Every structure is written in structure tokens, then in C-alpha cells.
Records
---
Amino acid sequence: MLFVWKSCWSSLHKRNYLPVKLGFSIFLLGLAFRLLFSQSSGFSEVSEAPFLGKIVKPIAPLKGKCDLFSGDWIPNPAGSVYTNESCKYVFDHQNCMKNGRPDTGYLYWRWNPRHCELPQINPEKFLEMMRNKTWALIGDSISRNHVQSLLCVLSKMPCHEEVEHAVEVYDDQEGRSKRWHFSSYNFTVSVIWSPFLAEAAIFEDINGVSTHEVELQIDKLDTKWSEQYQGFNYIMFSSGKWFFKSTIYYKNNKILGCHYCPGKNLTELGFDFAYRKVLRDFFNFIVTSNHKGMIFYRTSTPDHFENGSWFDGGNCKRTEPVKEGVLELNEMVKIIRDIELTAFEEAAAKASETGVNLRLFDVNPLSLLRPDGHPGAYRHFHPFAKDKNAKIVNDCLHWCLPGPIDSWNDLLMEMVVNGKDD
Ligand SMILES: *[C@@H]1O[C@H](CO)[C@@H](O)[C@H](O)[C@H]1NC(C)=O
Ligand SMILES: *[C@@H]1O[C@H](CO)[C@@H](O)[C@H](O)[C@H]1NC(C)=O
Ligand SMILES: *[C@@H]1O[C@H](CO)[C@@H](O)[C@H](O)[C@H]1NC(C)=O
Ligand SMILES: *[C@@H]1O[C@H](CO)[C@@H](O)[C@H](O)[C@H]1NC(C)=O
Ligand SMILES: *[C@@H]1O[C@H](CO)[C@@H](O)[C@H](O)[C@H]1NC(C)=O
């Protein structure tokens, strides 16, 4: 039997089994990590696309009780529920602890909605509800960032249980789309990389090196997700940031114009035009889809480059959350957000007629308050080991894991399992 030691600690302590004076022992965590790691194999038989089981009971929307998304970050002395050593799903670029980020204060906060309680996700209860179910997170690399957080949080189980951990059952070879299976719950989690939600030819490698403008079919939804769509019980979509990139727009397979393509003699249509069009089609598809599960649209999260942009030395060196009103969304993200909220509002009205369970997962405002949650220079392994003045391209867009987006799972738990919503 395997234990995840941090979670064991509180229950051991309560039951007085051990004079646990060590606190949270990095050593034991390391041991658990190695044991967990050596346990992963099998399950390759579970590799087909998952299909929709019966939804046991539709979750009735509750009357306006509480807006989970307005609140404050408050100190949380317990800290994160996993570490760089207890969770193996974290990608190196977001593994700030492993990469040597020196401060740890950013781990000791939790999201506290202003008018209601937000308990920490209960992995056991969540997994129990997810028996025979499938989740998909669909979008860009922030969705990938989130899936790792979700897997880490769910893999942490109470002490007397066998550790439940997800086994990877699919990988698209590029690490962009993946699928995991929690065998004892027959629960499947997928992440599908579809940064535009529409069909796009992308000439960019995983390091962001691009050889050609994106070619976006603004009138075609991406079959990468649309063909599997009915097979998922729960879906969280997101998009946004990729629309900023140099892109040629196609409609009916003909070039319509572009966004940022100097020298190409094409009409500049603006990224807002394209995002508006794609989201309109996307939501039309969703609200008329007769989908029986639960569908979230997650709003785009802000970046926090200060004193410059990502390409000219901008960084994110803050070590604490800020209060509401201290930071503002940059103009581009503001535009994205307006488009998302407008499109969602229209869609939600239609969804209530067609019976599709559509929810907004509005993490943009609470994310704005966490400039301290990004890897910054610690996207790289010990970036200043050789030269403490090294010039580093900072990542002030993705989120450290563990880190602020672990709270997203608490919000999910409230909305999905406890049926809370605003
Ligand atoms: C985890 O992070 C700590 C420092 O935060 C570091 O000492 C340790 O080596 C890291 N472990 C791994 C496996 O990266
Ligand atoms: C899960 O699926 C199995 C096999 O189809 C079935 O026996 C079991 O009752 C299902 N459990 C739930 C909670 O739906
Ligand atoms: C697992 O869940 C899927 C639905 O997601 C269902 O089709 C399948 O029968 C389940 N398998 C078992 C062994 O319960
Ligand atoms: C740019 O496009 C317009 C309209 O398609 C065309 O008339 C013009 O000759 C083009 N200019 C160049 C430099 O190719
Ligand atoms: C930005 O630059 C100003 C002045 O050089 C400095 O005081 C501030 O701390 C910097 N902010 C960040 C986040 O690095």
C-alpha cells in the first residue's frame, strides 16, 4: 500500500498514531514519489475514445446564492496539497520548485469568495462522482497547465486508501494532447490542444518557434475536438491568446484577410474580428448540440509582464498577490475578455432554451490578482546557476505548479459536485 505523506500527516496527527514532529517531510515525499513512479504501467487496453455514459442526475442551476469568482486571496498556512516531489504530472517548464524559484510565499494563499465558503476539493468525493465519466479540457497551453494541476490534486488521496493515480493512456507524440485514466474509478481525463477552437494550420514547434503565419479557417470548428465532443461528460473550453498571433484568415477555403501580416498585401481584419466570428460559431455549435453533460467556458487568463514585454526583458518578480484594483488587464486581454463575455451571454440565453448545461468559469479576474504565480525566469532549470545576471526570457503567462491555478479545482468541485454556481 502506498501513501501520499502530506495528506497522511493530518489524519495521523488527529488519530495520534505517531509523534509526527517532522512536519511535512521532503524525504518521505521523495520516497512516495519514487514508489508511485515505479507503479505506472498497464492500462494500455483502455485506449479508445471514451464514450458518454448516463448522467445520473442533471445538476439543477441554483438560484443566485454566491458568485464564486468574486473574492480575495487570503493566507493559507497549510500551503499547497502537493509538491514538485509528490506529483509527477507537472511539466518541467512550470515546475518552479524544481527549477529553483527561491521564494515560496506564493504557495500559501487560497481563493476566498466574498459571499460564500469555498472548501478545498475533496479528491475522493470528486472521483467518486466521476465514476465511469470523462472530462476534457480543450484549448491552449493554459488548459494543459490546468490539467496537470487537476491530476496532481486528484492523485492526493486520504491516508488509509491506496493512492489513486492517473495513468497516461494516450499522447499525441508532441505532448500537446493527452489522456489519462484513473483505473479504480474508470475515470478519464483528456486534454486536447486546440488553441483556436477552429481549424488551424500552425507552423510552430513546441518551443514557440514559428516558420509561417498561422492559417486559420474561421468558418470551421476544429474536428480534433468536435468529433469527440459527444463522448465527454464534462468539458472545459478556453481560447483567446493565440488570436494575437500573425494569422491568415480563410473562409470557404479562400483567403479573406489576415491579422498582422506585413508585406502580404492582405486586408488587416484584426484578431478581434476572427475571435468574435469563431466564438459565435463555436457557441452556436454548443447550444444546439443537445449535449447532456456539463460544459464550461473558461475565460482567458491575463499575463503579468511588467517593465517590458516577453521579448524585451519584461518580468514578473512579485512574490505576493495584489488587491483588486492594483493591476489592470492590458488592452489586448481586455478586448479578448469583452468578446468572451458578450459571446457567452448570448449563448447562455440560448442554452437555457435548448437545455444545454453551459457555465462560465470566470477565472480571469481572480487570476489578475496573482502576478506572483508565474514561473518568470524559473521556466528554466536553475536559470541563474552559471551567471546571476543572465538575460532570460521570462514566462509571465503560464502558472507555476503547485500554484494559484490549483484553486481552480476547488471551484470546479463546488460547481460540479456541490452544485454551486453564481
Ligand atoms: C523540489 O524543490 C526543492 C526546492 O524547492 C528542491 O530542493 C528539490 O530538489 C526539488 N525536487 C525535485 C525532484 O525536483
Ligand atoms: C460503471 O460501469 C460499470 C460497468 O459498465 C457498471 O457496472 C457500474 O455500475 C457503473 N457505475 C456507475 C456509478 O455508473
Ligand atoms: C468505463 O466507463 C465507460 C464510460 O466512460 C464505459 O463505457 C465503460 O463500460 C466503463 N468500463 C468499466 C469497466 O466500468
Ligand atoms: C495588392 O492587392 C490589390 C488588390 O488585390 C492589387 O490590386 C495590388 O496590385 C496588390 N499590390 C501588390 C503590390 O501586389
Ligand atoms: C519595474 O521597474 C521599477 C523601476 O525600475 C522597479 O521599481 C519595479 O520593482 C519593477 N517592477 C517589477 C515587477 O520588476
---
Amino acid sequence: MSVHALSLSSLLGFFLTISVLTHPSTSSTDSFVYGGCSQPKFTPGTPLESNVNSLLTSLVNSASLSNFNNFKISVPGSSQNDIVYGLFQCRGDLTNSDCRECVVRAVSQLGILCADASGGALQLEGCFVKYDNISFLGVEDKTVVLKKCGPSIGYDSDTLTRRDAVMDYLAAGGQVFRVGGSGKVQGMAQCVQDLSQSECQDCLTEAIQQLRSQCGSASWGDMFLGKCYARYSERGDFSKSDDGEDVDKTLAITVGLIAGVALIIVFLSFLRKLFETKGGK
Ligand SMILES: *[C@@H]1O[C@H](CO)[C@@H](O)[C@H](O)[C@H]1NC(C)=O
């Protein structure tokens, strides 16, 4: 009995180790960042539901043509109160097909997360989708939606200097999407394109300032406000180079192979122990 228990717990421990080792890299455009829904629910079969469905379809269709679009939907027969507003935006470096793929994913997740809700928002690594029956289009929103800071790197003046240089670069802005790096430190900033240029700059200034003050000496930081975000990382997450991705894939495959072989060994020794216990009786 004790042999069995030991083997089982070591197997369990092993599975945990594998899942930690093979934890997916956050650079995938499909990875979930945050999501939320508004409290009011619509009644199924009402014009509001038709408008929401029609809006989400419009977002998906539009995403293969551009990386941002917004809509105000009112299907025939629906009243002023049933109007639904919505938008999508992809990360500035995505191709149209990657953008569409991301928006399809976001809309389907939103349908599950915010089933029957009159409003919802979802941010994946590669795209942002939001809808509501309260108009929010063209409205600046600097509410902190998600703040995440990595572990502290302690006092490392070189990295901190580089981080500040990247933050300065992002803050200098003037564009809706910016990526920049210094050494290992990479940063990215983007605002939703329904904002004017000055609102965009204002939102980014706030996000970057928050990132600097909140994430202090963290190795990476994410600051998502209602209509813009700024992020930096030392992990190479924002690396678009094929080399970077290939290294990650090779590593994942190698880890997978080692894990597979190790699993077989553990399983065989488990079988052997099981056999010995039975044989010994
Ligand atoms: C949005 O929809 C909810 C649910 O039907 C409703 O209670 C609310 O009054 C609507 N808001 C507006 C601004 O129309």
C-alpha cells in the first residue's frame, strides 16, 4: 500500500512539475488578459439581444479588413433604448488574418463570459473587444482595469535605466501603437483608436506614469486603462522576431520530449514496484 501511495504522489508531483515547465508563453495572441461584464442582463428574444448579436457579427466581419472599427447597431424594429455600441481593436502589429482570428476568439469567449449581459469587454494579448448599450465610443476612459507587476529585480541600475528609457520612448508617443526596446527591456503602448490624438496621448501618459509608480523595480509590468495600455517586459514576450519564436518552440518541444521520456520511466518503475509488492506476498 505504502509503495502505491508513494508512487502516486510522486507521479502527481511530476505532473505538477510538467505543467509548470510547459506553462504557455503569454506572447500568444489568443491568451486571456482580462474580461468583465456589466450587471444588467437582457431578456432573450428582445431587440436588445438581436442588436448585441448583430454587433458581434459585425465586429468579426470587419476584423478581416482593418485592425480597428466601431459600430452603433440598431436593427429594424428596435427602439432608441436598444441601441448597442461596440468596437474591436487589434494589436498594431497583427496581420488582418491574425486580427480576425483573435477577434473571433474574443467574441466567442465574450459570448460565454458575458452571456445575456447588456455590456462586456475582453482583452486578449492580440485584441480588445467591447460592447455596451451605454455609449462609450469616443469617450476617454482612464480607469485602471488591470494592473499587474512582475517580481522585483531589486536594485539593478542598468535594467532600471533601460526601463526608464523605454518608458520615455513610449510616452513620447504621438502614435496609437508603439513598441520599443532597450537591451532585454521591451515595451509596448496602444490606445483605442476612437480617441482623438490628444486624448490618446493623455491616456498613455497616465498609463505610463501609473506603470512607473506602481511597478517600481518589477521585472515586468502591465497597465491596462479603459481606453489604452502600456506594458514592459524583460522576458522577451513582445519579441516579434522569428528567431525568438523558434527558440520558444524548440524549447517547448524539448521540454515536452524530456517530460514524455521521464513519464515513461516513472510509469515503468511504478509498474515494477507494483509487481514487486504483489510478488512479495
Ligand atoms: C441596457 O440594458 C439593460 C438590460 O436590458 C437595461 O436595464 C438598461 O436600462 C439599458 N441601458 C440603457 C442606457 O439603455
